[in-house]
Design brief:
The protein has 87 residues and is mainly alpha-helical. The chain has one domain. 63% of the residues lie in helices and 0% in strands. The longest helix is centred in the middle third of the chain and has 18 residues. The protein is globular and about 35 Å long.
């Protein structure tokens, strides 16, 4: 998967967060907490999908479609439906 590209796009979108709390730092802390939980709980998860989800979870707040930008990124980079569902 093009995880690096999707993460780069999330970081770019986070240059103008919808509020002051949901900036890049917030998303990096969420990702760090996800990694800690996976390790401590010994979970078997798709870490690439989890990283993308952590970095995109609060990128936008569109009342009609909160995932519009992510879906557009998926389309641009040909992310398969099975991977989209895991994210």
């Amino acid at each position: 998967m093009t995880v690096k590209i999707l993460i780069k796009e999330a970081k770019k979108a986070l240059l103008t967060p919808f509020d002051t709390v949901h900036d890049e730092r917030h998303h990096l802390l969420v990702w760090e907490n996800c990694r800690k939980i996976v390790k401590e709980e010994k979970l078997d998860v798709d870490m690439e999908a989890l990283e993308v989800a952590a970095m995109w979870h609060d990128v936008e707040r569109d009342e009609e479609d909160e995932t519009k930008l992510l879906k557009e990124a998926f389309d641009r980079h040909g992310i398969q439906e099975s991977k989209r569902k895991r994210i």
